[in-house]
Structures are given as structure tokens and as C-alpha cells.
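Standup notes, protein team

Yesterday: finished cleaning the Cognaticolwellia beringensis set.
Today: Methylated-DNA--protein-cysteine methyltransferase structure.
Blockers: none.

Input for Methylated-DNA--protein-cysteine methyltransferase:
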Amino acid sequence: MYYCTYQSPLGEIALTANDKGLSALAFQTGKSPITYTGLIEDSSKFTQVIQQLTQYFDGDRKHFELPLAPEGTNFQKQVWQALLEIPCGETKSYGWIAKSINNEKAVRAVGTANGANPIALIVPCHRVIGSNGKLTGYAGGLALKAKLLMHEGAQFKP
């Protein structure tokens, strides 16, 4: 496993990857910073990720095209795949995700899986808000979630 850090306009981002692709992205000021114990620092493994993150923060990229390798249960991976379907500048509710994976009653489980997403920003868990249009939890904090949504031009209730 490899890691590197990226200085974004919203703070330091830690990235990890294996030979299959990006395995984690975390804002280091959030609730779930990445620890580097046992990882090899190698920024050359992250050239494409860093380029696309820079384009995103410059406003030139709306969709990431990267090999992803998140680790999780089949249900979590199903939820994370649904997150990838939410376009930049839009938001969806937990109920919408539950319906999109044909499991309407799993709203709470969807919320838990959303919170366990290891690849923040690229797998856009920040685009999930409450059915009332208000912001709900985010590992990076609600202030960061609001900044990301404003950067994308998404509508939500403060």
C-alpha cells in the first residue's frame, strides 16, 4: 500500500492506493484522518489523482476517471457505486440511494455505508443530504461538506 498527501484549497488530503487503484482519500482535519503506519510514501503512484483533484478544485473537472479499489462489504460497495451516479452540482437523499439499489427500507443502512465511504470527494458522499434538504453528517465536518457543495453549485439548506 502506498500513500501521499495533497494540499487542497480546503486543507490537506491524504491518499492511499494499492496496485488496483485508489483505496482511500481523507481530509486530514476531519473525523477520520488516514494514518500512514506500514504504508510506503510514493507520490508517483498518485500523479493522475493529483492532476484530477487540481482540475476539480480549479473548477475544470466535474467527474473523476480513476481506478478505484475501496474495501468494504458488498452492500457498502453497492451504496458507493450509487454515489458515483450523483452528478456534480446535484444532491440526493439517503432514501433516493436506498431506492436506487432496490432496497427502499435500508435508509439507515445506506447512511451507515455512506459514512464508511473510504474515498471521500471522488466517491461523492458529500452530495447526500437529508430528505428535508439540510446537511447531514460528513466525516470532514459539515462546514467542509457545505464548502464542497457550494464549490459544485449544489442547492441545500444551511
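Follow-up from PR in the comments: The mean pLDDT is 94.
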